[in-house]
Design goal:
Distance between the termini of chain B: 17 Å
CATH topology of chain A: Rossmann fold
Largest sheet of chain A: 8 strands, mixed
CATH topology of the largest domain in chain B: Rossmann fold
Number of helices of chain A: 7
Oligomer: heterodimer
Structural class of chain A: alpha/beta
Strand content of chain A: 25-35%
Helix content of chain A: 25-40%
Order of helices and strands of chain A: HEHHEEEHEEEEHEHEH
CATH superfamily of the largest domain in chain B: P-loop containing nucleotide triphosphate hydrolases
CATH architecture of chain A: 3-Layer(aba) Sandwich
Chain lengths: ~220, ~550
Amino acid sequence: MGSVEVDIFNGFEYSKKYDSLKVLHAHDQIKELQSILRDRNTSRSDFKFYADRLIRLVIEESLNQLPFTDCKVVTPTGATYNGLKYKSGNCGVSIVRSGESMEQGLRDCCRSIRIGKILVESDAETHEARVVYARFPEDISQRHVLLMYPIMSTGNTVSKAVNVLKEHGVKEECIILSNLFCTPAAVQTVLDSYPKMKILTSEVHPVAPNHFGQKYFGTD
Amino acid sequence: MAAKIIMPEPPSSASSDSDVEETQADFSEVFPDCEVEEEKSGDFYNTPASPITVPYCPRPPSTGSQKSPKSRRQRTTSLNQQSKKTATESMIRTQHRTIYTAGRPPWYNSEGQKVVPFIIGICGGSASGKTTVAEKIIESLGVPWVTLLSMDSFYKVLNEQQHEIADRNEYDFDHPDAFDFDLLTQTLQRLKEGRKVEVPIYNFMTHSRESRTKTMYGANVIIFEGILTFHHPKVLEMLDMKIFVDTDADVRLARRLRRDISQRGRDLEGVIKQYTGMVQPSFNHYIAPLMVHADIIVPRGGENEVAIQLIVQHVHTQLQLRGLKLREELMQANAYIGQARPDTVRLLPTTPQIRGLHTFIRNKDTPRDEFIFYSNRLIRLVIEYTLSLMSFNEKLIESPQGVPYSGKRMSTNKICGVSILRAGETMEQAVCDVCKDIRIGKILIQTNLQTGEPELYYLRLPKDIKDYKVILMDATVATGAAAMMAIRVLLDHDVAESNILIVSLLMAELGVHSIAYAFPKVQIVTTAIDPEINDKFYVIPGIGNFGDRYFGTEPADEC
């Protein structure tokens, strides 16, 4: 138990040098959501309910990373409000299968956003990740991409996916990974290879709740 | 924003006429058990919402009673009138009940503290015209919320032996011993504190209290009338103004005779025997001496216009001194300028996302479809943020990975939402999306267009709300008048001040300070605070009328 605590500490310590890693402000409410998702005694309906809540928060926060410009609008009272406007030209890309759990959250925030998909499978024998399927909007190279993948334990899958995106002409600095749980090792793997992309997560912890996809989709 | 909801025509009701029966059924279904509950715990806090139901209680012809049989007059009522003219129009009369539909104006001052009501006591002999005087005062006062309490409700329950005496016309109903003064003082005291009370309904046939009671609320003015209102020293102490109606004994006898003979079909001899044997001696012995306590003696009862005008003037002066002009007062409370924002304010971090959402919903050209969509997103964020303000406990979690995880659990699952109609209702869905099976209460507060004051119209809260953390929702808060009324209602239901969170999308600086000053323990959660309020109580730059834009009810000439 003690060693685990030290590891958590290390995890935070060494994620700090990555400027492009953003962790959701860890207030108690988010901690509770994480606790429920990690609890083995959580029922499946609760699991899905609270997972959706956490996903929504992560997505909302991810949208904060997208580019915007200032704009002024007139309110019904006739006064002017100094607001801002998001630039168009964003899209989502989910990594099949667990990344698809986050699509609804994105849809709830951006109704007509385009969503691409990537299927990455790891070889049963060599454990090497391999892209099986990828389908993107045609002009993806011009867009900011919200890459969705909830659990990242090694970072291999995400690395492959980013690689595919780059092959399609997406700029590295235009990729934002929306993630719920990741390990320090995964952060290191991904950001060492692609230092210009951003990672937004709710928690960096040495133990990743790998049961997420199984429990969310009910295939456990 | 409740404050700007279009007020129904004064005489029209909160519920449409065709709903009357339904409304009643609803009330008798929902209120009884909650009242029983409150009664048990001894906490009758006022539930000051209209429609108030006043059970109709015909007094049966009291053939056996020495007490003069009164006509089927409603002796104890909660009048809630806008003005003379609408007094009757704002009620719905059905066979068994009268429902008052006008809203309850503020019963507390701008600091959120309750204002003690002005209590008028009216004393005088039987058939002296006390009720007429009371009615005339209510009529001329024009005060929106008056409660009329009659001593007749507090006759003691008779035992079998006394019952027989009464049957023989020998029980003295004009003697002080005939009244339950303990219950009377208790009831009056509660009313004075602005609490809800259950007034017994006395049945003159069985000489007992009926199982149902009448619910009454504290008011700005309470009128207490009866033959021995000045008899008990404790009651005397509570009265702010004491009126004695002095009508000539002959006139009183004449009135009794006419009433009893023509309306009750009783014989002259019996009435006179009653009168000379008990009513008159009792008057001379107990009632007449009470005249010394009176501030004003009104000769000739209700016909005495001069006396009544004097009384009304005095009451007006007193009410003004106590001050109930709430919203105006709040507007003038400019003391906050330059002061630091209160530390109970929890403003969401202004991220680009929140500003972007505000840009959409503040823009007057945003179509409704988008307005609703982006409002809902913003509401979800503010509700999530609100939940993060709850208290949490450490908890060690067993994970499927076999590694223990030190997590957190919310320390209470007793959270409920209360929305301030109408705009607050837009936030209910988000609360339900975030908290499974959450209970939702509702409060309807509307602005009286004549006075500009908020008025309470409707209230439905979870039974055991005092044990809950309450998320009080209103989309926008301008002066804070409606929010303060809602908070006051919750406090009156025993919710701890520190358990209340007022949640909104947009607040004006002024409202924030007024609420924080009046209720320093209430947490104020919002996504933006705007600097100003215009003369129509709209926030500047603001959102406009949130409820109208969300529900699509904006007047055609605006927008």
